[in-house]
Amino acid sequence: MKRKFHLLNLAAFSFLVFILTGNNLYSQHQHGHPPGSVDGYINMLETPDRASWQMPEKVVNYLGIKEGDVIADIGAGSGYFTVFLSKKAGNNGKVLACDIEKGMINYIEERIKKENLKNVVPVLCKPDDPMLFPSSADLVFICDTYHHIEKRNEYLKLLKKYSKPEGRIAIIDYQKKETPHGPPLSMRISKEDIVKEITDAGYKLEAEFFFLPYQYFLVFRK
């Protein structure tokens, strides 16, 4: 009888651990990073074959960035795009590399030193607030992060406040269909919904580019 009671307690405890850790992993995925170590996530972001389909240099060339622009890289992660944005902004510009994960910010800080990225400023932000200054950003760049943002209507209001009067938002996110890369289909957002959400927030769709095989590439202006 005691053994049976012990086994029941053990089973209950195991179930509780499963629920708690499972919720934690789901929460990590929901807030911008899949479960696992920071190092593992960085390796995934920086995998050599990513350039073949992400085309970072071409993407940045299509953004119309001017020397001296201030760019907010929301969900910067390892700084994959931050480096390319930094080159375009030039010595008189600035890239705010924003991420909610302290490990990512630490990695970007090391990258700034190693690659001499003098115009990059790491920003540890909140899941519901990128923590920028009002009217500070010429361009808000959000790659593969928009679908993770909860309460997007409120978040877009903040982005509008943080953007300059003619500020822009560039969204790159995974198409709502099965692709070799990207999150589960259930987490993806259709292009139509993205456009509606951002135009409802007071922006207008300025440009759409079609060269990325797995992602939408949309640019909006205030």
Any overview of this molecule?
It is a single chain. With 222 residues, the protein is α/β, with parallel strands linked by helices. It has 2 domains: 1-30; 38-221, Rossmann fold, CATH 3.40.50. It has 8 helices and 7 strands. The protein has a 7-stranded mixed β-sheet with strand order 3-2-1-4-5-7-6. It is globular. The N and C termini lie far apart (70 Å).
Proportion of residues in extended strands: 15-25%
Q: Give the overall form.
A: globular
Number of extended strands:
7
CATH topology of the largest domain: Rossmann fold
**CATH class designation of the largest domain:** Alpha Beta
Based on the coordinates given, report the CATH architecture of the largest domain. 3-Layer(aba) Sandwich
Q: Mind describing the biggest β-sheet?
A: 7 strands, mixed
CATH superfamily of the largest domain: Vaccinia Virus protein VP39
Mean pLDDT comes to 87
